Amino acid sequence: MVTEFKLPELGEDIESGDVITVLVKVGDTVAEEQPVMEIETDKATIEVPAPVSGKIKEIHVEAGKKVMVGQLLFTIEETSGGEEREEVQAKPEDLGEKGSEKKEDTEKKKEVKQEKKKESKTEAQIKEMKAKDEVETVQTKLNEDEATEKTRDRDSSMKEREGEVVEFSRQAKTSTGSPKELAPASPSVRRLAREIGVDITEVAGSGTGGRISEEDVKNYARMVITRKQDSSAGAAEIQIPLKTPTQLPDFSKWGEIERQPMSNVRRKTAEVMTSAWTTIPHVTQHDKADITNLEKLRKDFGKKAEQAGGKLTVTAILLKIVASALKAFPQFNASVNMNGEEIIYKKYYHVGVAVDTDRGLYVPVIRDADKKNIIELSAELVEVSEKARSKKITLEEMKGGTFTISNQGSIGGIYFSPIINWPEVAILGVSRSHVEAVLVDGKFEPRIMLPFSLSHDHRVIDGADAVRFLRWVIEALEQPFKLLLEG
Questions:
Q1: Distance (Å, rounded) from C-alpha 481 to C-alpha 487?
Q2: Whole-number Cα distances in Å, 134 to 130, 243, 316
Q3: Residue 244 has what pLDDT?
Q4: Theoretical Cys-Cys bridge with 14: which of 8, 10, 118, 379, CB 3.0 to 4.6 Å?
Q5: Could you read off the pLDDT of 259-273 as tens digits, one per residue?
Q6: What is the CATH architecture of 167-232?
Q7: 2-125 and 264-486: identical CATH topology
């Protein structure tokens, strides 16, 4: 029996992936559930197992190519098990009447499977037809709206040429039949609204007499995106188009160029960062911690962490400190829902840690960081970081974070402005420590100083709160006893 192996569902909202490695070749014998290829999806690498045991007859994909859910991957010729084995066992000349009965059962099973396949195919066709109808309906509506706007623009232009004053107070019927004032905007502004999908009659104008400008339209579009994004918190992530607002020039006129498609990881990073930057009012607070005494403690207890499989890094220590700080400042462990005009406070403390890999930035989440000691956190941090770098991290292991730490100290730099990992409301950036002269008890001493950059969402966190939060973290590093007293 020949089986056509197609790419199965890989997870919620995952429609495609990039083939990293094909682990088999034509003629290879594989066992059921044996990995046959590796696929990289949004921020995760997945091993795809064989659905049956058999011999690889054909390979329809290759490394470096993108594959879609439902696409044919392999043709496998089953060598044992399945229906073929049932048919062999059911030969009547070998088993008599019992064999005939088994053959009838086998044929019935085959008929049932064929019916299920037909039903599944029919359901898929119905879904496809519905989706197609919805797209056609939306496109028809857009075409109708555009035609109506063009007519209005032409009428307005004709009246202006004739020296007449355009009456913006004249009424226009909405889709519900209720009268609505025609938007006081120029044809170019209305055209911009159409192109980005904004109902210009809903835009408040900031010009004289309420006249609408291009900036008014753009600000309204940003507000709509924010509302949609907040309403989807805990559900599907918003897909931000990666189209360039204006047409790029032909760079090849000035020299040699090379075009490379975005990887799934880079595309997803671009989407999330674009969404966060355009919808969250970022503010970044900078400060430094004196970690001279902490460095001595790290050397004293480093071996104990290594025995537990970890490494006593500043990041591991910060995981514990940040988890305690989030309890003291609950607004940093929250999410903003502008659509519902509410702030969602989380009673769990899952801290994400940005990990630099050769494929981009991954953010595995350390769950219940408040319930683990520093030794346990150091061991878990080593484990998830290694999984991220070796493509073993799963999507689930990168979801559910309430706060993020991004430590760039191993690379360099002094300060930076990290972008908030939506739907979180804050992120702590850590730079490289350095020695500088600090006045201590009237004398300058060489001290090891660690720079911090705390970006926060100004909709829920005020600047004063950001200073207090960061000072709390710094004091816990400088005075570890504070963590025992207040953490």
A1: 9
A2: 6, 23, 50
A3: 53
A4: 10
A5: 888 777 778 778 888
A6: Irregular (4.10)
A7: no
Q: Is the pTM of this model over 0.85?
A: no
> Rounded distance, CA 436 to CA 303, Å?
28
pLDDT (0 to 100) of residue 358: 83
Question: How do the domains of the chain map onto residue ranges?
Answer: 2-125, 167-232, 264-486
Query: Domain spanning 2-125: which CATH class is it, in words?
Result: mainly beta
Under 8 Å between Cβ of 401 and 363 = yes
Helix or strand run (H / E) with residue 65:
none
Helix (H) or strand (E) segment spanning residue 436: strand 434-440
Burial of 197 (0-12, 13-18, 19+ CB in 10 A): exposed
- How many Å apart are CA 302 and CA 231, to the nearest integer? 45
Check residue 245 and give its pLDDT: 56
Structure-block tokens of residue 59: 């390979």
Task: Tell me the CATH architecture of domain 264-486.
Answer: 2-Layer Sandwich (3.30)
Q: How distant, in Å, are the alpha carbons of 36, 73, 76, 420 from that of 28?
A: 10, 15, 10, 47
User: Which residues are part of the catalytic machinery?
Assistant: 458
Tell me the residue type at 346.
K
**Which tens digit of pLDDT belongs to each residue from 390-399?**
888 888 899 9
Distance, in Å, from the CA atom of 313 to the CA atom of 295, rounded to the nearest integer, reads 10
